[in-house]
Amino acid sequence: MEPAVFGAQAWPSRTAAKTAKIAPADYADVFLRHHAALRKIDLAAPHFSDRVARALREVKVREQTPELPDSDRELLSDTLSGLSAAISIDKAGDQLLHGEPHPGNLLNTTRGPLFVDLATCCRGPVEFDLAHAPEEVGKLYAGADHGLIHRCRALNWAMFSAWRWRRDDQMPDRGHWRLEGLNQVRAARDSCGWG
Questions:
Q1: Which ranges of the chain have pLDDT less than 70?
Q2: Integer-rounded Cα radius of gyration of the chain
Q3: Of 153, 91, 96, 145, residue with least CA distance to 120
Q4: Nearest C-alpha neighbor of 123 from the set 55, 187, 35, 193
Q5: Would you say 134 and 26 are in contact if contact means Cβ atoms under 8 Å apart?
Q6: Rounded Cα distance, 122 and 85, in Å
Q7: What b-and-e string marks burial along 71-95, b requiring 16 or more CB atoms within 10 Å of the CB?
Q8: How many CA atoms lie within 13 A of 159 on its CB side?
Q9: What is the pLDDT of residue 106?
Q10: Of 83, 101, 111, whose CA–CA distance to 32 is shortest?
Q11: How far is Cα of residue 147 from the mean position of the Cα atoms in its chain?
Q12: The pLDDT of residue 10
């Protein structure tokens, strides 16, 4: 048996700011700077649609998601395949992305907001990243396609939901998040006109 290989990354210490809340304008600003920096990095990274394809496989293989009701399986399958195809049509503006820049991956430090946990970096439109943030953040990001943000948000909720229905998912309060995820998929689909 091969020994396990582990890696560690040393990060400079950052002091947390007194307020944990990051204003939408500051969130949008750190996104603009983060995306500008990522455009300068030449790194082979998977396209976001690769992650969507993995989520779709989980949904389609009943043994992986045995408790997922058929109607919800159809909802997730349609959302994952349809929106991924629609978003992936134009790859001209694709760039390196954080991949999951939700509020839990944005620290408020005394030196300003800082993104962490780039383990899911991928390529795609910046709107894919923006869809992980609170809605008001995308409204403040110069040049963002707001319709595309809404489609990406529906796609992100569908991926989140697919993971919650996996047989071996261990997210705390999984039962709640299974239902909440599906509700968010439906709401996001309606918001982007995909419902």
A1: 1-20
A2: 17
A3: 96
A4: 35
A5: no
A6: 16
A7: ebbebbbebbbbbbeebeeeeeebb
A8: 20
A9: 92
A10: 101
A11: 16
A12: 43
Tokens for 101, please give them: 């820049």
Residues 63-77: tens digit of each pLDDT: 999 999 999 999 999
Directed axis angle between helix 70-88 and helix 48-60, to 10°? 160
Quickly list DSSP for 105-157. Answer: GEEEETTEEEE---TT-EEE-HHHHHTTS-HHHHHTSTT--HHHHHHHHHHHH
Question: Within 13 Å, how many C-alpha atoms sit on residue 9's CB side?
Answer: 6
The per-residue pLDDT for 12 is 54
DSSP letters along 36-98, please?
Answer: HHHHT------BHHHHHHHHHHHHH-TTTSTTS-HHHHHHHHHHHHHHHHHHHS--TT-EEE-
Contact (CB, 8 A) for 120 and 51? yes
Which residue, chain included where needed, has tokens 């293989």? 61
Q: What is the distance between the alpha carbons of residues 180 and 98, in angstroms, rounded to a whole number?
A: 24
Q: Tell me the β-bridge partners of 48.
A: none
Q: Give CA–CA dist 157/184, Å, rounded.
A: 6
What pLDDT is attached to residue 110?
A: 87
